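Hey, I was hoping to borrow your eyes for a little while. No rush at all, and the record is pasted right below.
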Amino acid sequence: MTMINKIIRDETWLEGERRGCFVPSSDVVVRANVCGVILRIGAQVREAALREIAEGRPSGTEMGPGAVHHRAA
């Protein structure tokens, strides 16, 4: 499963929990939340890469799939 698919699945589940009913992944709120998570993760990856470049380390040593955190419900 790709990271984006996991984010979609997680955000769909979270929105369903908030509403107390089934919510499709195509829901406007789910899509907005997915975009927000992706933008935040992108910013974190970019910051980590810039930090590594400044420190002279090879890119990709700090951020990995385990380092990605979603927002709290």
Remarks:
- Residues 3-57 form one domain.
- The first helix runs from residue 3 to 19.
